[in-house]
């Protein structure tokens, strides 16, 4: 990584600001970005390219010559939300280009909204740009339309999602992502590292590594030097000096080799690893790896190597055929696993998913009741784990400081938007957003902490 002189160090120098006010006559595009962080990365890439080509970016419908709606199609409820957003953009602006996951089903969109200008699928950057060029021709001014060094970012500038691969080679029965996004395709390590370096140089203090299957990164390369390229990528990213947080890590055995990087402080001691269930029969019906007992051994091994590790996971309750005994196994497993952060979904049919055809779907009221019991347990575990932090000194990154001086921060154990926060209620004068400071924890709640500066 190139080293800036101290006065230009991104963490010390005032943050650069790029006005998005369009110049007179500048073609201007609006963007509505729905869905997951992966979709947000796509939106950022599209905006970066448009900015580079001389387009202005409008924060509202009325100022835009056309609007791109980046859709999500993961669940039927997300599809409905996407259709609604397209309808709103058509009503407010009238010139709408649709892209993203739902774009993989163009008839579904044009059936509901025949007036959209174009529909492109996920990651069809060139096609989205072609559609924009056709709808609103570019008119660049080479003297003023300079691309910000880090691209146009929709996330706060001190953290950034970084997508390392696309697609997935698994065939989990409840999931249609492989149909929508295709097989695993990893970005070249050099390109990922260059993007990471640029982000850090422009002031990003935390890189959130995302993909559909992060631990499989690089295993799609035929002539690779290393069996699991995620290991050297994680090590190289860890050398950039920012927090590096790993998301969507599929539970392969080689995940254990990532943990020493966390113990050494190169990568945050945080693993977002979706287990989905714990009963071997349920996992088998999901077409997921079914060795729940071995998973407990793995968790114990990770904690041996890195005692501070925070484990986040997601689960599905009410999966077709889930018996009360299977669900109880999941609750018992939770007692043993003592995960720090847990998300839980009630099973929902998704058009095209193979799980729809499984027998013995669980009634809605049973799903709800199991979800309540699961969350009660998860909450109790989270509360106990947070209570144990009272009195500890920990580093936090500041996400926001409001007008009353209350700072909303995150510890290394908290990913943005999905985990809890640590709040500093006083003594925040002189602090700024993006800064990393040490606090002593003096109070804990169910999901959040409170602390004071040391
Ligand atoms: S590993 Fe994840 S993305 Fe791949 S099929 Fe399973 S749930 Fe879907």
Model description:
This protein is of the alpha/beta class. The protein has 3 domains: 26-135, Methylthiotransferase, N-terminal domain (Rossmann fold), CATH 3.40.50; 159-387, tm_1862 like domain (pyruvate-formate lyase- activating enzyme, Alpha-Beta Horseshoe), CATH 3.80.30.20; 393-453, OB fold (Dihydrolipoamide Acetyltransferase, E2P). It is built from 12 helices and 18 strands. It has a 5-stranded parallel β-sheet, sandwiched between helices. Strand 3, helix 2 (76-92) and strand 4 (96-100) form a beta-alpha-beta unit. Helix 11 runs parallel beside helix 12. The longest helix has 24 residues, at 364-387. The chain binds iron/sulfur cluster. The site of iron/sulfur cluster (SF4) has 9 residues, from helix 5. The site of iron/sulfur cluster has 9 residues, from helix 5.
The backbone outline, from C-alpha atoms, is globular
Could you state the CATH homologous superfamily of the largest domain?
Answer: tm_1862 like domain
**Elements, N to C (H/E):** EHEEHEHEHEEHEHEHEHEHHEHEHEEEEE
* Span between termini: 31 Å
Helix/strand/pairing category: alpha/beta
Q: And the CATH topology of the largest domain?
A: pyruvate-formate lyase- activating enzyme
Number of strands: 18
The profile of the biggest β sheet is: 5 strands, parallel
Bound molecules: iron/sulfur cluster
**Cross-sheet strand order for the largest sheet:** 2-1-3-4-5
| Number of H- or I-type helical stretches | 12
What Rg is obtained from the alpha carbons, in whole angstroms? 23 Å
Average pLDDT confidence is 86
- The unreliable regions are 1-19
What is the chains' assembly state? single chain
């Amino acid at each position: 990584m190139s080293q800036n002189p101290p006065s230009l160090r991104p963490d010390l120098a005032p943050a650069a600001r790029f006005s998005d006010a369009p110049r007179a006559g500048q073609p201007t595009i609006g963007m509505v970005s729905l869905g997951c962080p992966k979709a947000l990365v796509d939106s950022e890439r599209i905006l970066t390219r448009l900015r580079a080509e001389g387009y202005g970016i409008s924060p509202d419908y009325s100022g835009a010559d056309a609007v791109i709606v980046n859709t999500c199609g993961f669940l039927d409820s997300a599809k409905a939300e996407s259709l609604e957003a397209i309808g709103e953009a058509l009503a407010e602006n009238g010139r709408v280009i649709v892209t993203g996951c739902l774009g993989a089903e163009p008839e579904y969109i044009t059936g509901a909204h025949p007036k959209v200008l174009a529909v492109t699928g996920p990651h069809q950057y060139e096609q989205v740009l072609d559609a924009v060029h056709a709808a609103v021709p570019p008119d660049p001014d080479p003297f003023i339309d300079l691309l910000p060094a880090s691209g146009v970012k929709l996330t706060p500038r001190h953290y950034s999602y970084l997508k390392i691969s696309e697609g997935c080679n698994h065939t989990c029965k409840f999931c249609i992502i492989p149909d929508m996004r295709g097989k695993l395709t990893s970005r070249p390590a050099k390109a990922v590292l260059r993007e990471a370096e640029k982000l850090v140089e422009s002031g990003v203090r935390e890189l959130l590594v995302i993909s559909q299957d992060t631990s499989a990164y690089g295993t799609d390369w035929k002539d690779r030097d290393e069996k699991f390229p995620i290991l050297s990528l994680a090590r190289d990213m860890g050398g950039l000096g920012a927090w590096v947080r790993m998301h969507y890590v599929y539970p392969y055995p080689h995940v254990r080799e990532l943990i020493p990087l966390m113990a050494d402080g190169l990568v945050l001691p945080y693993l977002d690893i979706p287990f989905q269930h714990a009963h071997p029969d349920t996992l088998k019906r999901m077409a997921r790896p079914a060795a729940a007992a071995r998973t407990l051994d793995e968790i114990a091994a990770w904690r041996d190597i890195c005692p501070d590790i925070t484990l986040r996971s997601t689960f599905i309750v009410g999966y077709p055929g889930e018996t009360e005994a299977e669900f109880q196994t999941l609750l018992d497993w939770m007692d043993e696993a003592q995960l720090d952060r847990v998300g839980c979904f009630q099973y929902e049919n998704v058009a095209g998913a193979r799980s729809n055809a499984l027998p013995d779907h669980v009634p809605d009221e049973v799903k709800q009741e199991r979800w309540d019991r699961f969350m009660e347990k998860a909450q109790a575990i989270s509360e106990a784990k947070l209570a144990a932090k009272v009195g500890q000194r920990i580093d936090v990154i500041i996400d926001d400081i409001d007008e009353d001086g209350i700072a909303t921060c995150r510890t290394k154990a908290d990913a943005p938007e999905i985990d809890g926060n640590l709040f500093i209620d006083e003594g925040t004068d002189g602090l700024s957003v993006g800064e990393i400071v040490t606090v002593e924890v003096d109070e804990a709640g169910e999901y959040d902490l409170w602390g004071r500066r040391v």
